[in-house]
Design a protein that fits this description.
Elements lengths: L1 H20 L3 E2 L4 E7 L9 E3 L2 E5 L4 E6 L4 E7 L13 E4 L6 E6 L4 E6 L4 E6 L9 E3 L2 E5 L4 E6 L5 E6 L9 E3 L2 E5 L4 E6 L5 E6 L4 E7 L2 E6 L3 E6 L5 E6 L9 E3 L2 E5 L4 E6 L5 E6 L9 E3 L2 E5 L4 E6 L5 E6 L9 E4 L5 E6 L4 E6 L2 H5 L40 E2 L1 H19 L1
Antiparallel strand pairs: 1-34, 2-33, 3-4, 4-5, 5-6, 7-8, 8-9, 9-10, 11-12, 12-13, 13-14, 15-16, 16-17, 17-18, 19-20, 20-21, 21-22, 23-24, 24-25, 25-26, 27-28, 28-29, 29-30, 31-32, 32-33
Helix pairs in contact: 1-3
Organism: Methanocella arvoryzae (strain DSM 22066 / NBRC 105507 / MRE50)
Keywords: Membrane, Transmembrane, Transmembrane helix
InterPro entries: Haem_d1_sf (IPR011048), PQQ_b-propeller_rpt (IPR018391), PQQ_rpt_dom (IPR002372), Quinoprotein_ADH-like_sf (IPR011047), WD40/YVTN_repeat-like_dom_sf (IPR015943)
């Protein structure tokens, strides 16, 4: 009996060691379905609605692609003589008056277009300078910003101007709207809040660096800056609740899900921090900078990197499920959607102009490990809205070699659990 117990103990320890040190099990990989080449640079994320993808290019064309096959339904050119770039994702929304689905987008020539889902122009508005952000629709009004620092409010029905507001710097990315206020960052170093009805300034928070696209969640605004700091700001008082520092610019809008703020940095990391106190939950290292907001679906984060990969990472643990080599930088947000085949697909675009569709693995859509990790980093608490930060420039990591495999942690965790059960059984005997 003593020998049997010793054997059980040794076997349990062997299983435990295998769980710790053995080669990780392969995770199921996505399958590429199709690639559509636009032959032009793409910097704005594709938008997926009702089995159709809408994407603009630096050559001045807006494409409507039928997602199941990757075929073009129509294209719209900003100007037949001298097309100008569409740098940001279009807004696809339903007009609250006509109940017609419309596509709104800006061009490098400063024109905001409204076209219907058949690619027919409904109206256009000429702004003062280049439009490099995605418009926002709120209460029947379209809001957008320009390179010269102006915010415009237009009637979504006919494009007539309601008002405009002038900041002192480029409005380089999207705006956010909530409770009759519009929020945006400017390269003049401030975060702004305006009344949606008349454009009067409500807040102006000095963040001492170029400010990018905000997201509003509850009572707070979350926004990143060019000096690599993520701020949590009370949207009523303008007070900075906390800040979280990284080693690279935060150029895209943060994502708030599961009481967590997710965002990428030019330092090559995707971060997950607690939305209440700013403590780091985890970070995931890509091989180069992350310039777009991550996508979220069924507990999984999908994001691209300038290293040329799209990653699938567990939202709670930060563990990698798989990565896909897209062949060139992916500075857009991947979008997951249910196709006509009732299966999940992932759509994204590369900087070199390819729009790609992946079939997502069935096993990763429903099964996601969800333990409760502990915070590891304490943020700096800032009592006032004026923040002074001296950033240290950090060069972007150089893209490394293609990894040999993606992995799933579940087999190792299962083996470890069996080892623990064996040890407990032995001790009780």
């Amino acid at each position: 009996m003593l020998r049997l117990r010793r054997f059980a103990l040794i076997a349990s320890l062997i299983v435990f060691a295998v769980a710790l040190f053995a080669q990780p099990a392969m995770a199921e990989q996505p399958e590429q379905e199709w690639t559509y080449s636009t032959n032009a640079y793409i910097t704005g994320s594709p938008v997926y609605q009702n089995n159709v993808l809408y994407v603009g290019t630096q050559s001045g064309k807006l494409y409507s692609l039928y997602a199941p096959y990757g075929s073009a339904q129509w294209t719209f050119t900003t100007d037949n003589k001298t097309p100008t770039a569409i740098s940001a994702a279009p807004l696809v929304a339903t007009d609250e008056v006509t109940r017609q689905r419309m596509i709104y987008f800006g061009s490098g020539q400063g024109t905001l277009f409204a076209v219907d889902i058949n690619g027919k122009e409904v109206w256009r508005f000429q702004a003062d300078s280049s439009i490099d952000c995605t418009p926002v629709l709120y209460n029947g009004v379209i809001f957008f910003g320009t390179f010269n620092g102006k915010v415009y409010a237009l009637s979504a029905e006919d494009g007539n101007q309601c008002w405009n507001f002038t900041a002192d710097g480029w409005i380089s990315d999207g705006l956010a709207a909530m409770d009759n206020q519009i929020y945006f960052g400017s390269w003049d170093g401030h975060l702004y809040s305006l009344d949606v009805g008349n454009g009067k300034q409500k807040l102006k928070v000095d963040l001492n660096s170029r400010v990018n696209a905000p997201v509003v969640s509850g009572d707070n605004i979350y926004v990143g800056t060019q000096d690599g700091v993520l701020y949590c700001i009370n949207r009523f008082s303008g007070n900075v609740q906390w800040k979280f520092e990284t080693d690279g610019a935060i150029v895209s809008r943060p994502l708030v899900q599961l009481n967590t703020v997710y965002f990428g940095s030019a330092d090559g990391n995707l971060y997950a921090v607690n939305e209440t106190n700013g403590r780091q939950i985890w970070k995931f290292a890509a091989q180069n900078g992350i310039r777009a907001t991550p996508g979220f679906d069924s507990g999984i984060l999908y994001f691209g990197s300038s290293d040329g990969h799209v990653y699938a990472v567990d939202a709670r643990m930060g563990l990698e499920y798989w990565r896909y080599n897209a062949g060139s930088a992916v500075d857009t947000t991947p979008m997951a959607g249910l196709g006509t085949d009732r299966k999940k697909h992932l759509y994204f675009a590369t900087v070199n102009g390819d729009v790609i569709s992946l079939m997502l693995p069935d096993s990763l859509i429903m099964a996601t490990p969800t333990p409760n990790p502990s915070p590891t980093v304490t943020p700096t608490i800032v009592p006032t809205p004026t923040v002074t930060v001296t950033p240290t420039p950090v060069p972007l990591p150089t893209a490394g070699p293609e990894p040999q495999s993606s992995w799933c942690p579940l087999p190792g965790l299962l083996a470890a659990a069996l080892a623990v059960v064996g040890i407990v059984y032995y001790r009780r005997r």
